[in-house]
Amino acid sequence: MDQTFQPTPSAPVIRLMVLETDKPHPDTYSQRGSFGRIIYEHFSRAGREHRPPLGVETDQVFVVTEQGGRMPSAAEFDRFDGLLITGSVYDAHANNDWILQLLSLLRTLWIQRPDFHFLGVCFGHQLLARLLGGSVGPAPSQDWELGHCRIDLTPVGQHIFHTRNDHVHLHQMHQDQVVTAPTAASAGLAHLPDDTEIACWGRSDHTPIQGLYIPNRLFTTQAHLAFDEDMVKRQIQIRVDAGGIKDLEHADRAAETAHLEHDGVEVAKAILRSFVYDRDDGED
Fold first, then answer.
1. Which 3 state secondary structure label does DSSP give 218?
2. How would you classify the pairing of strands 135-138 and 211-214?
3. Where in the numbering of this chain does the Glutamine amidotransferase domain appear (predicted)?
4. Is residue 39 part of a domain?
5. Omega before 182 cis (within 30°)?
6. Does residue 281 sit within a domain?
């Protein structure tokens, strides 16, 4: 179902298709809805707080076919300006049928829609890196990056976020990471011009590639933008209960950081801004 926020009649409206690759904890769903709804609410807030304000319209499709989802056709994206792939408990380097179908869809859209924006969060970040020829796998340390974490910004990151600060804070929930960043040469059928730079905008001790960026084309983040305190605690518990997180002390320490303020709204503002302003315009 379409969801729209338009602050003023003259505000530009960014239209996003959210590809849901997981379902939230049942308590989160009852309070906040699906991940597509959570993304909509978060980006709507970012649009309201942006100067000048920006409107947001979203639709969403749950694409995990082995759990009753469906894979949309490329034609369903015709009226959208971009897509966003959510986080997931699945491995982005796995070869489940729905993951391979999603990669095929993304490749088609990348080739057919040179004006389209591709956004990815956590699993989505890793899957888009895979699409462009990067490699994804477990962290060399085999441990998890959890909870409220500092991300050190590269000069590209400072430019994107319009900040002189050298870091941001966001919530993390992952063991896998982008191990090798994609390049124009690795993109293969994605057909990137040879001079395209796929920049890294941030890094941490655990994860050297926290996000990827191509102007007017690609923005990904390993960290989560829209998690609140309850979501962080519940998503950690889901992974503990499933046996994915075995270091319970680490999980407890991460859960204790769930209340801390983070920069998810500022990052969402930068993502929205990238749709409507040139790189040096639209100061916030």
1. strand
2. unpaired
3. 79-224
4. yes
5. no
6. no
Cα(15)–Cα(58) distance, integer angstroms: 6
Query: pLDDT tens digit string along 143-171?
Result: 999 999 999 999 999 999 999 999 999 99
CA dihedral over 192, 196, 198, 201, signed as positive or negative: negative
**Structural domain count, the chain:** 1
Question: How do residues 51-64 score in pLDDT, each as one tens digit?
Answer: 999 999 999 999 99
Determine the structural domain holding residue 54 and report its residue range.
Answer: 13-138+176-226+264-275
Within a domain: 254: no
Residue 150 lies in a domain: no
Whole-model pTM?
Answer: 0.93
Contacts of 284 (CB under 8 A, 6+ apart): 50, 51, 162, 269, 273
> For residue 144, which amino acid is it?
W
The secondary structure of 148-178 as a DSSP string is EEEEEEPHHHHHHTT---SEEEEEEEESEEE
